[in-house]
Amino acid sequence: MVKGGPAQKAGLKKDDVVIGYQGKEITDSAALRNEATQTPIGQDARLTVLRNGRKEEMTVKVGSLEEATALLASVVKERLGVEVRSPNPKEVEKYGLDANRGVVITHVDPKGTLGQAGFEVGHLILAINTEPVEGMDGFIDLVSALPPGKRASLTALDYRTGNTGNIFVTVP
């Protein structure tokens, strides 16, 4: 759940299981996503959740993809102290990357987790805990899944030398 996102604002909690959306049964996350994409942005939607073995009803305001992306990017900035973008075609060619592989750091907070580890603007992050970074969405998913207080291994590419290596950081 994204801090400050529609689910949190609606009152959803960590272990809640969504079992209904607008009166329709929800069997998995794909079904919920498909139903939510049919709802106009800004409209309220009824959710049925299973919380501690009991059904509860709540209302959530449907957000836009742009809002979700911005919220998720803020999670990356908050947890790692960086802003990133997808590599451009020139960088993909220069470093011999697969298409949609990795992210390029565009801003580093020197006091943030990656700033303290020595990351700089221009460095590329190719994997987290051996899981390949597949574009911006993949990077955000991997960062969001990192448990607080645990060490993580980031496979990075130095933009100056083209060399790769693993750097260990503890994610707040």
User: Count of DSSP helices?
Assistant: 6
Distance between the termini: 17 Å
Q: Provide the low-confidence segments as ranges.
A: none
CATH topology of the largest domain: Pdz3 Domain
- The overall strand count is 10
Number of domains: 2
What percent of residues adopt helix (DSSP H or I)? 25-40%
Shape: elongated
Mean pLDDT: 90
Share of β-strand residues? 25-35%
CATH architecture of the largest domain: Roll
Strand-and-helix sequence, N→C?
HEEHEEHEHEHEEHEE
Largest sheet, in brief, is: 6 strands, antiparallel
The secondary structure category is alpha+beta
The CATH first-level class of the largest domain comes to Mainly Beta
Q: Roughly how many Å is the radius of gyration?
A: 19 Å
CATH superfamily of the largest domain: PDZ domain
Fold and architecture overview:
With 172 residues, this protein is α+β, with helices and mostly antiparallel strands. The protein has 2 domains: 58 residues, PDZ domain (Pdz3 Domain, Roll); 105 residues, PDZ domain (Pdz3 Domain, Roll), CATH 2.30.42. The strands form 2 sheets. Strands 5, 6, 7, 8, 9 and 10 form a 6-stranded antiparallel sheet that branches. A 4-stranded antiparallel sheet has the order 2-1-3-4. A hairpin with a 2-residue loop joins β7 and β8. α3 packs across α6.
Overview in brief:
With 172 residues, this protein is an alpha+beta fold. The chain contains six helices and ten strands.
Top keywords for this entry?
single chain; 172 residues; alpha+beta; Pdz3 Domain; six-stranded antiparallel sheet; four-stranded antiparallel sheet; 6 helices; 10 strands; 30% helix
